[in-house]
Amino acid sequence: MRAIVVKPPKPGVEIKDVKIDEDKLSTIGLVKVKVLENGICGTDREIVSGKRTSVKPPAGKDELILGHEAIGVIEVGGYGLKEGELVMPINKRGCGKCLNCLVGRPDFCETGEGLVAGTKGLDGFMREYLYDDPKYLVKIPPEIKDIAILAQPLADIEKSIEAILITQKRVPIWTCDDSTFNCRKALVVGTGPTGILFSLVLRTYGFQVWIANRRELLENEVEILEESGIIFYNSAGGYENLVKNVGKFDLIIDTSGASASIIQHLVPLLQINGVLGLFGFPRYDAFSLDYKTVQDFVINNRIIIGLDNGQKPHFQQALIHLASWKSLWPKTTSKMITKIISINNEREVISSLREKLPGEIKVKIKWE
Amino acid sequence: MRAIVVKPPKPGVEIKDVKIDEDKLSTIGLVKVKVLENGICGTDREIVSGKRTSVKPPAGKDELILGHEAIGVIEVGGYGLKEGELVMPINKRGCGKCLNCLVGRPDFCETGEGLVAGTKGLDGFMREYLYDDPKYLVKIPPEIKDIAILAQPLADIEKSIEAILITQKRVPIWTCDDSTFNCRKALVVGTGPTGILFSLVLRTYGFQVWIANRRELLENEVEILEESGIIFYNSAGGYENLVKNVGKFDLIIDTSGASASIIQHLVPLLQINGVLGLFGFPRYDAFSLDYKTVQDFVINNRIIIGLDNGQKPHFQQALIHLASWKSLWPKTTSKMITKIISINNEREVISSLREKLPGEIKVKIKWE
Amino acid sequence: MRAIVVKPPKPGVEIKDVKIDEDKLSTIGLVKVKVLENGICGTDREIVSGKRTSVKPPAGKDELILGHEAIGVIEVGGYGLKEGELVMPINKRGCGKCLNCLVGRPDFCETGEGLVAGTKGLDGFMREYLYDDPKYLVKIPPEIKDIAILAQPLADIEKSIEAILITQKRVPIWTCDDSTFNCRKALVVGTGPTGILFSLVLRTYGFQVWIANRRELLENEVEILEESGIIFYNSAGGYENLVKNVGKFDLIIDTSGASASIIQHLVPLLQINGVLGLFGFPRYDAFSLDYKTVQDFVINNRIIIGLDNGQKPHFQQALIHLASWKSLWPKTTSKMITKIISINNEREVISSLREKLPGEIKVKIKWE
Amino acid sequence: MRAIVVKPPKPGVEIKDVKIDEDKLSTIGLVKVKVLENGICGTDREIVSGKRTSVKPPAGKDELILGHEAIGVIEVGGYGLKEGELVMPINKRGCGKCLNCLVGRPDFCETGEGLVAGTKGLDGFMREYLYDDPKYLVKIPPEIKDIAILAQPLADIEKSIEAILITQKRVPIWTCDDSTFNCRKALVVGTGPTGILFSLVLRTYGFQVWIANRRELLENEVEILEESGIIFYNSAGGYENLVKNVGKFDLIIDTSGASASIIQHLVPLLQINGVLGLFGFPRYDAFSLDYKTVQDFVINNRIIIGLDNGQKPHFQQALIHLASWKSLWPKTTSKMITKIISINNEREVISSLREKLPGEIKVKIKWE
């Protein structure tokens, strides 16, 4: 079948025929999924560019099928899944050994031996067909099929917020005097898809949300953020003005994925009992905090937390949230998919895997 | 202004002019809300029939304005609420003394001195205007205004499920091997609005859901339950057949509000580590459990839990869920409001407050 | 080797030689434990009397070695256990299948296939030697060896209180205004070893504790309860006087193990948001609650919870508590072991397994 | 009355007569406490040396009574406290405004206006008498009076571990396959009283514990750590050897209070899902982490958490733990109080407030 293939660590990507053991379905417990569409993510482009050094093909191979965002339709069902149902495969798979993987939470895998489709030891989803275990397939409601591809990146964010809210249970009362989060201020750094999705979920949880970038927003970004009441701040001149006007932040999420040095600018913006969530990877540089900032961090019960990967419950939560946004914020949801490319338009597929266009939120590849 | 008024414990109800201290807005912290619509609930009818003995007018009065479900529009705003915004008032108000009320959770008020609009010591919402504290007003997204009146009864259910899920944290792993609730079976007893809403929320959380009544479903009820995959069981002949085919239940919710004796039929249906949630009030009779059933209850870590009232975070969660249902289950949501009556159609308003029509889910009174 | 053996469901008990496969140690992962002492518990006597119908010998056998409370010394060590170390075996063993058993919590086993030494499908600990898996052996600090046998019954109670405290997290604030439990009132029904241990743990957690029985306390019971400030109430005339003087209870634990009807007398004593914990088995009769009591139960967020079995973390917690009591309440701890019988005094061992003596708290059998 | 007094920010300390409004007891809700003993802590010495810049006398005064560790006896009781009872005052007091303070948890005060006896805006406990609110007095069991002064520093540690364990609930299973913490490895950096107490509590919770310092242990330190199985590591040559032999750590606590740069050496020692707890204040320098370490931190779900202050429940927990240690580790507890100085021995009191002696764990001042 056709698939989008990389040969890490070499840069480059191609669409080519690959052989998949066609009798895999005889393996107990698998169903056959025809892939309908894939989402392209920054990680894919990093792999294609050869910059992501941690990427690994399946054991014994030098090629890797790319892609960790996909929607497909069941062609040969079973085990509770019926022909014609829409599904999304989950990218992170368990090690089969540690307790977290046994209870369905490979995102906290302790052995480090869990595989990740499209990036770490397991072929990805950019191909005509999958043969997969229903445990790792999430049913997609047809009513929101147009935006459902967002459920994969959103699942990571749902898990992140779950982790943060559990962490904040250490504070006896972190809710407001009406028991909501309406008085809590969150700052999301970065206006890429991840920053936008984080902001939307935080709004859904009732937080006041500021989103920051070091440039002005493009027009479509403005429209996406408007409906849900997210406030934009241009941080090109630093955060002083923001703090002067708004105060410190109970929750800060860094999605910038650029210089690690941003962390030293964000820690001092934290409110008492505040949390700095690190999501995504800084690409260069370092950060430094002096002893006075550390003292302040300690005396004010602050936390820095690493955030990663969602699992099946987070995919399902993501779908509920996407469905609610479709009703509540129709303009926002209608602008999140910025481009749909046919797999037959090979040149544009390859080009989209190489480069992000200005104003892009999410690009989908359509298999037909 | 006009209002719908009762004189408990006398049966009866009338629409009449009432005097409200018009300079209340000078009180610090209040806004003025023009009521747009009210929902009618079984509790209202019980009060009108004179059967609900616990109902109390405000201190020093013998009249009570009815109603605890309302949507209004801000006429005089302030404190974060702007003219023209839609809001829903919360019915349960804090005692101002106990810690739970201080942190915004009068649903767990410890003094028992909290008031409840329309039923206990506080005038209700069936009237032209409210002067209220924004702390007790929930913003309603205009996009779901048509079904938003359901957020009040749904808030009670959101709180109930929150309470149950916290309670089940006593079981180290109550999720399935994919960390979802997809393998868990819930039985909801009663097909009134509460039973339906409970079933829909449990589906949203990923549970398998059966709903039971001692009669066949009406056509509109069938249509409401179909889309979300809720399975109906006619319990006229008992629950034996159900358990034989489906097994025992991890979660059972009684919303029947009839004979207390049903409890003795439900407890033996509980799975190991299972929960029986009692929501709403039985009206007569008693239940009895023999020592062997109690032994079984103890050795299998079961729980019976009383469920009541939601607060602001539950109203907000209810709105998110309603919005998601509008996308996911459009047929269901379009059939939940079974009738809209103009306040000017006095005869039908009174008649609707007296009697539930067959097939009714939710009836709204429209102020105009 | 010698062992204390029953043949359920026949009444009776004997000390006799039994054959145990002596090369069991070659099985990977086992150590050899020489039993030093056993505790006698009410369950043992029920089995001996033939009244406990649920007791089962190991599969394919008609004899069962009795006993689920033991302390032993490692004779052949390994896997982190050294010769000479004191250990206590855990009675409840996992099914090896369900997630709760996989994470070390067979007390919430979902398959119902877990075994229990001395009562359900597994030989007990009243014998010269055990060959056991270190996962099920708890290290006993020699410093508290004299009272350590109490760690087994106490473990069940530690787990029960853990389950209750998690359950009460559903109440946003169940602690007092100093964040302790010092204002919370607990009533423990029953003054047997279980009732006493429950009361002591609740005191340790800071609760005010009343303990009730329908007779006056014996002198040694008075002395045991005095030091820790537990207050005795004679409930022969009902609970009216208690409630009149003390008010309702936030937590009630029934350890009486007699008539199930007591439950209907205890439910109305519950405070708002209160919990009734059922520990141990009622032996006869039934309880009945009328619809008004159920209404009250619902509107006040109450809970009835079945409590059972502790696992390794609860045994370890029990040992810490016993050690603290030895310092804090030396008189109490010195009076908990009311008799020590040599295994060689066969007549008295058998007689103690048949009948509880007045004033008995815990009787130990000593192997020598 | 006599008191030990400082005039921050000036260095120095003196024992002198101070005037306290003697009719304070007429204030509703206070009791009179005669101070029996004080503990000296590193913070006291920092204040005396003039190095702690954050210290503040009560509003409008330039003198501050020193001391935040004390045991006293009730002289004029009331409100549940009786004459002759032993009590320990809590140092951190609520702001009276924020929700955390209202529920008894000033350690998470959000306004920053809470006061701390002996360091921030409130006179400390090194004086003949206190007039205090029973809400802030913890009953001390006479049986452990000799070591009870340790409950104050220990309370901070109990709170810290509580915060960490709640935080780790984000990991579905952070316990071992027997549901204990016995497989988890903790590293405590620093062998001062705080490091030792942290290690002892972690042992009590079942962790494997290593304690590190950049020098060899003194003889009395060896004896204190031996009984409870804490393993010492000399980190003068870095942590490489430790990790090579033992592996990475699930939990690392820094109590060193010296250079902030140590943090950059500790972060890379964290296991997957691991926590770095910062307790106490670094005094100089900074730490720096490069982007690769941050990537690793993110992908492995790690956390850095600031730890501070305990409140009443933590004092009570500390007393239970001290009582258990007295039974379990008698040699350890007998060596924790390294010196007792009479207040009348003015020269030695002052000298002890100036300088820590080699081998000192806890020095007590005795009032007589």
From TrEMBL, chains A, B, C, D:
Reaction catalyzed: D-glucose + NADP(+) = D-glucono-1,5-lactone + NADPH + H(+); D-glucose + NAD(+) = D-glucono-1,5-lactone + NADH + H(+)
Reported function: Catalyzes the NAD(P)(+)-dependent oxidation of D-glucose to D-gluconate via gluconolactone. Can utilize both NAD(+) and NADP(+) as electron acceptor. Is involved in the degradation of glucose through a non-phosphorylative variant of the Entner-Doudoroff pathway.
GO MF entries: D-glucose binding; glucose 1-dehydrogenase [NAD(P)+] activity; NAD+ binding; NADP+ binding; zinc ion binding
Cofactor section: Zn(2+)
Organism: Saccharolobus shibatae
UniProt keyword list: Carbohydrate metabolism, Metal-binding, NAD, NADP, Nucleotide-binding, Oxidoreductase, Zinc
Domain named Alcohol dehydrogenase-like N-terminal: residues: 29-141
List of residues binding NADP(+): N213, R214, R215, F279, G280, F281, L307, D308, N309, K356
One Pfam short name: ADH_N
CDD domains hit by this protein: glucose_DH
Protein name per UniProt: Glucose 1-dehydrogenase
Record EC number: 1.1.1.47
Entry binding sites for substrate: T43, N91, Q152, D156, N309
Gene Ontology biological process terms from the UniProt entry: non-phosphorylated glucose catabolic process
Matches recorded under InterPro entries: ADH-like_N, Glc_1-DH_arc, Glu_dehyd_C, Zn_alcohol_dh
Domain Glucose dehydrogenase C-terminal: 146-348
Top enzyme class: oxidoreductase
Similarity remark: Belongs to the zinc-containing alcohol dehydrogenase family. Glucose 1-dehydrogenase subfamily.
